[in-house]
Write a structure and sequence with these properties.
This protein has 493 residues and is α+β, with helices and mostly antiparallel strands. 51% of the residues lie in helices and 6% in strands. The longest helix is centred in the middle third of the chain and has 32 residues, at 289-320.
Length: 493
């Protein structure tokens, strides 16, 4: 064989790569009954077939070939993907304990160090989860006190939007601020004015971080952390922004500690600091400042970004489908009139409730769901998943499951209505995920969505600016926001 000839050299390289891939595939096979998946290349795995900006789209398509349980590799990270309502619900609900941990993701591990509630594990996670749920409940979530706070904030939101007098404006920061003020009132016991520079800065830090955490550069960092850590920008920029956010929280902690009154606990931070004083010394302390810093970050980010993104999608969809908007307003007039919307009205407003459900389904805010990890060896759907397997319960495949939704790719409120116009439940409606890792702020988010949405449509009709073309494409980010756009809010009174 003439190794000096270019074609011979090329054939030799192709052969070597093929042999290496075969050997790698055999070596990477964890178990004979491990889920099948696309052929991975050495080092890069299946990265070459993914859409970096919207990986869930590519992954969801793979289910058509490999079934509802299959494997992929991102770099050297092996993952098992769960697709479709029946499979995802079976895993997260019926096998909740086995699928209850979080895997280590380089970017989030560097940001949280395993603290907080969203991405922690073990006893620390259980302590933070129990504390968060009980504290949210004690400070009014699901009760009239939070309903009053949301309606008070709605007054300011209506006033703020009304100040544009029907002219085009970007509603991103306005809606973010309104929603943020609810969770902030629970976290630190205060609200901010809409033009407050401190809140504006905090919101910018969160929005930029969420957007960048879903970017191709951070995707590559998670796949090759050692290599990508040498490059400027990308994850390093996210780290800087989160560090700045953490600095604000630590300053707040210091202030609260100096004025702490155990007999007058006004917010979550006060409650945590009291628990910190009460915690008996032991090798595993949970109520320490690092856990509190990340916990507040978790709750602020998740309690603001996803709900405000859903509201932005809701208003955009109302502009896109004016007849649906008019139907909602008709029901508001019939049930509420000019009175203040209350949660007790929701049961009397099946159409509005169905529209909000469909906004959440269509918006698909967290398409890949929070990743899970198996806590033990599991045989699931006939496949063997060893302890520590990275699991991706693909939420977009649930919210778009054709077995449960007649028109999964369209905005169609009838998905949640029967022939008599009554609200109906749907097993595939899992916007807050499910199981032990379901969203701890689900009840708060449901209240915010109903009260803010009905108040806005009670007071305004939303239209696109003259000549503007409405775009329902999603922007790139960890959570799915609509692309930047402007709206016109025409006063109804």
């Amino acid at each position: 064989m003439d190794f000096s000839h270019p074609i011979t050299i090329l054939l030799y390289i192709i052969t070597c790569v093929f042999v290496a891939a075969v050997l790698y595939k055999r070596k990477s096979r964890i178990h004979p009954n491990y889920p099948p998946g696309p052929w991975p290349f050495p080092i890069i795995g299946n990265i070459h077939i993914l859409n970096f900006k919207r990986p869930h789209v590519t992954i969801q398509k793979l289910a058509k070939k490999y079934g509802s349980v299959f494997s992929i590799e991102i770099g050297c990270q092996k993952m098992v993907v769960l697709c479709g309502c029946e499979t995802v619900r079976d895993a997260l609900v019926n096998h909740a304990e086995e699928f209850s941990e979080r895997p280590t993701i380089p970017s989030f591990e560097n940001l949280t160090k395993g603290y907080g509630v969203a991405l922690s594990n073990g006893h620390s996670w259980k302590a933070m989860k129990q504390f968060t749920i009980s504290t949210l409940r004690d400070f009014g979530v699901g009760k009239n006190i939070i309903e009053e706070k949301i309606n008070y904030e709605s007054d300011w939101l209506v006033k703020m939007i009304g100040s544009f007098k029907g002219k085009p404006f970007d509603n991103t920061m306005i809606l973010n601020t309104a929603v943020a003020n609810i969770i902030v009132s629970i976290l630190i016991g205060q609200r901010f004015e809409y033009d407050d520079p401190k809140l504006q800065r905090l919101m910018t830090l969160v929005m930029d971080s969420v957007r960048m955490l879903g970017s191709p550069s951070v995707f590559m960092y998670n796949a090759f952390p050692s290599l990508m850590s040498w490059f400027p920008g990308g994850f390093k920029t996210v780290q800087e922004k989160i560090d700045e956010f953490h600095s604000f929280i630590r300053e707040t902690l210091t202030s609260r500690k100096n004025h702490l009154d155990v007999n007058d606990q006004r917010n979550l931070i006060d409650r945590f600091l009291v628990k910190q004083k009460e915690e008996k010394p032991n090798p595993e302390l949970y109520f320490h400042d690092n856990n509190l810093t990340v916990l507040v970050t978790d709750l602020f980010a998740t309690g603001t970004e996803t709900t405000s993104a859903t509201l932005r999608w809701g208003l955009l969809l109302m502009m896109k489908y004016p007849q649906i908007q008019k139907n909602v307003q008709t029901e508001i007039e019939k049930v509420i009139g000019e009175a203040e919307p209350l949660m007790l009205h929701r049961k009397q407003m099946p159409y509005t409730d169905a529209v909000i459900h469909e906004i959440q389904r269509f918006a698909n805010i967290v398409p890949t769901n929070g990743p899970r990890m198996t806590t033990q060896d599991v045989t699931f759907k006939g496949f063997f998943l060893p302890k520590g397997t990275y699991i991706m319960p693909l939420l977009s495949s649930v919210l778009q499951d054709k077995e449960y939704f007649e028109r999964p790719d369209e905005f169609y409120p009838q998905h949640f209505l029967d022939s008599d116009g009554n609200l109906v439940s749907n097993e595939a409606f899992l916007p807050f995920s499910a199981g032990k890792r379901g969203c701890v702020g689900e009840n708060l988010a449901k209240m915010e969505l109903f009260l803010f949405f009905t108040r806005l449509l009670q007071n305004f009709t939303f239209q696109a600016p003259p000549g503007a073309k409405l775009d329902l494409r999603a922007a790139v980010g960890l959570s799915v926001n609509p692309e930047k756009h402007k709206i016109c809010a025409i006063a109804r009174n």
